[in-house]
Amino acid sequence: MTHITLINPNTSQATTVMMTEIARKYLPEKFSVEGVTATSGVPMILNDGELAAAAGGVVEMGLAAAGVSDGLIVSAFGDPGLQRLKALSGLPVVGICEASMYEAAAGGRRFGIATVTPDLVVSFAAKAETLGLAHLFTGTRLTSDDPLVLAADPARLHAALAIAVRECFERDGAEAVIIGGGPLGQAADDLQRALSSPVIAPIRSAVELLLSRIAHPPGAGARTK
Fold first, then answer.
1. Residues 6 or more apart from 54 whose CB is under 8 A from it?
2. Is 54 in contact with 81 (CB distance < 8 Å)?
3. Residues contacting 41, CB < 8 A, separation 6+
4. Total Cβ atoms within 10 A of residue 108
5. Residue 158 burial by CB count (10 A; 0-12/13-18/19+): exposed, middle or buried?
6. What is the DSSP letter of 91?
7. pLDDT at residue 222 above 80?
8. pLDDT value at position 217?
9. What secondary structure letter does DSSP report for 92?
């Protein structure tokens, strides 16, 4: 059985369970997934300092899981520790931010982000730049309430994000909208099914990208020729 580890850089066990269950829904038979949770940090990453501080723990958790895993998912939207983990683990590793941006931008689509964390907006734009997608990025639309309050109220979170999604489409000209945040995973999954416009759920994006990279590892074709 092919085994995937989903890394939650936040300290919330409940968030880990939620994200792992979402990932499990999109895995084929003979794949398993286990979630691991940061032992230090914050329940929900809200700013650049917390994002940077989470990177070391992500690498530590990823390397600890590497011996029993066939692939790793970094399930925080800022992808903390992603590049270092890719370099050190020897496994296919994807982050939910990079995966969702690649999916959103497929075919040259203009894309935006709807989320709850105003202090991470600059990092989202920087990520789009790093991935070579800045020319397609229409910006981030935010909910108006406290992120932790919204995260604790699923119905309120869903409604607030739906407004931000609509603003991305109607005001910014986005052709696809990412729901930006691992702890927003269930809302993203629900909105993707509920809305007719293209809404990108990052955990699903990460699962699909990781499956592709496991099936077609870099250099595999060259070795078989």
1. 9, 10, 38, 41, 45, 76, 78, 80, 81
2. yes
3. 9, 10, 11, 50, 53, 54, 57
4. 9
5. middle
6. S
7. no
8. 79
9. -
Question: In the 3-class helix/strand/coil scheme, how is 139-183 assigned residue by residue?
Answer: EEEECCCCHHHHHCCHHHHHHHHHHHHHHHHHHHCCCEEEECCHH
Give the strand order in the sheet containing 176-179. 137-142, 111-115, 176-179, 199-200
Q: What is the tens place of the pLDDT at every residue in 88-99?
A: 999 999 999 999
Residue 135, burial from CB neighbour count under 10 angstroms (0-12, 13-18, 19+): exposed
For residue 30, give both structure tokens. Answer: 């003979």
**What's the pLDDT tens digit per position in 37-74?**
999 999 999 999 999 999 999 999 999 999 999 999 99
pTM of the model: 0.93
- For residue 82, report the phi and psi dihedrals to the nearest 5 degrees: -60, -50
With a CB cutoff of 8 Å and minimum separation 6, the contacts of 137 are 110, 111, 112, 125, 128
- Report how far apart the first and last C-alpha atoms of the chain are (Å, whole number): 27
| CA–CA gap between residue 12 and residue 28 (Å, rounded) | 27
- In the block, tokens 């990781």 appear at 210
Dig out the tokens for 102 from the structure.
């690649």
Using DSSP, state whether 100 is helix, strand or coil: helix
CA–CA separation, 124 vs 139, rounded Å? 9
